[in-house]
Structure formats: C-alpha cells, structure tokens
Amino acid sequence: MLSSEHVPSIFFNKSRSIDETNLYDGDIDEGGANKTPYDIIEHDVTTLAKANNLPPPDSFDALQLGSERLRTIIAALHCNILVRKEDLVRNLDYIANILEAVHQDETRRLMEEDDGALSEIEPDSVPNEVRDWLAMTFTRSMSTIKRRPSDKPKFKSVAQAIRAGIMVDRYLRRLSIDIKFKTINEWTFDVFSVNEFTSGQCLRYVGFELMQRYNLPNKLHISITALNNFLEQMESGYSKYRNPYHNLIHAADVLQTTYQIIYNSGLMNWLNDHELFAMFIAAIVHDFEHTGTSNNFHIQSRSDVALIYNDRAVLENHHVSAAFRLMRIDDYNILSEFTPEEFKNFRHLVIEMVLATDMSSHFAQLKTMKSLLSMPENIEKSKALALVLHSADISHPGKPWSIHYSWTESLMEEYFKQGEKEKELGLPCSPLCDRDNTLVAESQIGFIQYIVEPSFVVMGDMLEKILKSLSVPDSELPSPSIPAKSIASSPSPPPSPKSSNDSNHQHDEDNGRERKPSSMTTPLPRPTIVRRPWIEYLKENRERWIREAEEEKRRKELKVIEEEP
Ligand SMILES: [Zn+2]
C-alpha cells in the first residue's frame, strides 16, 4: 500500500462537483480525517462503476464530471489500483463523447460568430504564406505547435485564422474609415482619400454610411443584403469602361455633395424618409454605366443607346433605366417592400432628378427655377431636388483647389480619350477633346463663370426660399425648447427643437444627424440664411486658373520666340 507522500497532489479532486459529492455523500467524508490519499483514490475508483444518471455528454455538468473521472483513472493507474476493464472502457468512452460534443459546439459557435466574413473568402484565394501567417498570428494552436515545413495547417484552423485576421483588419479599416467619415458632413470632404481607405470601394461605403445614418434600411424595410448587392453592382457598372472621370469616385462625390447641401441647409427637414432615400439613390445611379463619352458622341457615332433613346438625354436615360432594370432582379431589389404608391413616387423622383443632370438642359432648368423663385407658390420637390443634384454634379470647382484640380485632370483625360475615339471613327474632334490643343485653364474659368457660379446662386436662393416657407416668426412659437441663441449661433446644420410626440424624429447630436420628416404639422424656427461655402472656393479657384492661364500664355509666347529663326 502506498502512503500519502507517494501520491502526487495533482490526483486529488479538489473540485468535486456537487452532484457527484451528493451522490456519494457519507461514503467519503465519514471519518475522512483518518483516510490516506490512497484510500481516497481507491474510493474514487469505486465511483467509476456508477453508470446510471450521468449527465448527458453535451451538458455543462458532464464537463466537470468527465474531467474528475479522467483524473481518477490517471491516479489509479499511477498508484497501481485496479480499475475494472468494463469501468475503464465505459468511462473513457463517456469522456470521449464529452470531448466530441465540446468540439462540435465550439466549431458551430465559431462558424456562427462571423459567418459573413467566412462566406466572403475562398480558402484557395489566399496565398499559403498569408494563411500561415494568419494561422501563426491569430490562433493559439498554430503559435504553440511547431509544424514541420511539409505540414499544411488543417483547413478549419486556417479558416478560423483567416476569419480572425479579417476581423482585425476590418476593425482597423472600419476605425480609419470612421475617422474619415467624421468629415462627411463637411463641404471639404475628401472623397479621394476615402476611396483609398476603402480600397477603391468608396461608393458602397459612402452609400451605406448615409443610409445607415438615417436608419433608412430599417425604416423603409430595405434588405441589407439587397442593398449591399445593389451597391456592389453600382460600383461594377461605374467601372465597366474604366473612365478617368465618370467612375464610382465621381458617383460617391456627387452623393456626398448632394447630402452635404441638403444637410447643411436644413433642407433635410423638408424631406420624408422616402424622399431622402430617392435623393440618395438618384445621386448613386446618376451616371451608372457611363461610357466615358458625351451624348453628342453617341449621337454622332449612332450608337445603340442613341438609337434606343432617340438622341434625347441618351446617357441619362440609360443610367436611370439600367438602374431600374437592375432593381427588378430579386437579389438587387431594394424596393421590394415599397407599396405601389411609394414605388411610383420614388420612381418619379429618381427619373426627374437623373434626367435633369443632362447638361444640355442646364440653361432651361436654371431659367425655370429663376422664374419659380419670383413666384409666391412653393417650389415643387422634384424640381428643387433635381437642381440640388445637378449642382452637386458640377460642384468640383467650388471645392478646395487640390480636389478641384484632381477632378479637372481626370475630366480632361476623359475628354482626350473621346477625342482619340473620334479620330479613329473619322468624326470631328469635340471641343476640349484634342490632347494637343486645349486650353485647360481657360476652359475652367469659363466653366466657373458661366455654368457653376450661376447654378449655385440660383440653388442657394432656392434653398432660402424653401426654408423661409418652413419657418415662422419667433413670436408665433409656443415655447421653444432650444434657446433662440443656440439656433442663431449654430454653424451647421440648424437644429430643430425636439418634439416628444414625433416617433420618426431622429436625433444624434454627436454626428449632427437630426431631421424631421415633412409630415410635421407645426412650423419650426430655422435660420433662413444658407451658408454657401462654395463661394470662397469658386473665387479662389477662378483666380488661380487666371494666373495659370497667364502663365500658359507666356509659355506659348516664349515658345514662338524660340522657334523663330
Ligand atoms: Zn455626374
């Protein structure tokens, strides 16, 4: 017989489960003070014969009991205490069942935890080296077990490691994007750097961010999967012709600028959720599948789209038609829960807005709006939103120089490519499309002076007229919950007093997300002067181009003098 010092302490069951203790209560503890460790192990071995009423292997209690019985078996083997073969086999089998249940459970848990991340990645698409690094870095097993060079990690652990890696990467990316998105309410939002941060997917990120900000998927019952699929298709449509300018960055830029205008002015409060959604979608689709060539090019080259749309707003008709055709497919149908009436209104708004981005209707659009401004009636929503979208579409000269300059370069490149196509087809070269003979600076000065500036003047006046129609004098207000001072001094956007009985009212002061749908009945006090951040930039950029033009002229004169014999 062994004395207590021959039995290693690890064999003692200090954490005996309540169930098992109760089961054998009285047998162990009676006169326990006189028992040696050997006696205790010998007694524990007798418990191994107990096969009835064991907790099921997949239960939490089984984990504790299983580990205790395994310890007893090890201690018995160590101390040469006989364990009956049938008890040994039955207990080891029970313990094996417990381990299998734990493994299944854990696998299921991991799969469920981030199924989304896994479904996006094909194991074969990840290089072996990256897999190994992820497995080594992000799983416990791979960092502790040294593998022979020929050993490949098992798929399950690799998948888990990749998921872990993706989670970390996504988290970091999300963090950086969040920092970038802090400026999404600003006129100076830098869409190029957001595009870099999102690995060339800025349209879907900006789109999602804005929809989520206003809780639109939830409120309008838009499937997140369909929205994601739709935005993905938008990005691929914008990338179809590899355009230097009319690409997904331009779409994201126009979307953010449109949003900024309605947010900054307070026009947001004039729109209900469906109208806001229509505005976002119109901006997203407004150049979908743009060919990088002008309507005139389509007409002159007698392209298919020109024939389909009879030379009228050829591209704009295509953008909106292709987008609606896409939304007809279940996977991309973001409108599936709209009532027929909601669909009709949404479609009307989107068509009106996108068709109004046809530059050939620019002067007519401005003239109509100017005359509406002088009338006492309220302005039609579709017309107002169309002018906002059109202005956003031509807004880049009103942005900081570095942003405006990048857009100018891209646009010129696209024009030059069209010029080359025209040359190939034997068509006359369109204005600004000749790479060897174009005055970039002059063209921008004209663009700012005759197109962009007048548009923004009319749009600014229109915003103020709409805001005036929504506001009432302070004296007529019941009792404002926000002091007048805070309203007057608010830089942007003008906050509306909270209404406790308005369930649709969203408020998020940190992000400046506040809006009231147009259904509100009580007019609210709002500043009717709209901030116009573009004015400064238009002026600065125009002056800069004037200096550039002078230099361009001087360079040309010098060249002529040098070339003279
Ligand atoms: Zn555009």
Q: What sequence of helices (H) and strands (E) makes up the elements?
A: HHHHHHHHHHHHHHHHHHHHHHHEEH
Radius of gyration: 35 Å
β-sheet strand percentage: under 5%
- Overall spatial form: elongated
> So what's the oligomer here?
single chain
CATH topology of one domain: Catalytic domain of cyclic nucleotide phosphodiesterase 4b2b
Low-confidence stretches: 1-32, 113-121, 131-155, 477-512, 516-523
Count of beta strands: 2
What are the bound molecules? zinc ion
What is the CATH homology-level superfamily of one domain? 3'5'-cyclic nucleotide phosphodiesterase, catalytic domain
Strands, helices and their partners?
Blueprint: H1 18-23, H2 37-47, H3 60-78, H4 85-113, H5 115-119, H6 128-138, H7 140-144, H8 155-181, H9 191-197, H10 202-213, H11 216-219, H12 224-239, H13 248-265, H14 273-285, H15 295-300, H16 304-308, H17 314-327, H18 340-355, H19 362-373, H20 381-393, H21 401-425, H22 440-470, H23 484-489, E1 506-508, E2 513-515, H24 534-563
Helix pairs in contact: 2-3, 3-4, 6-8, 10-12, 10-13, 13-14, 13-20, 14-18, 17-18, 18-20, 19-20, 19-22, 20-22, 22-24
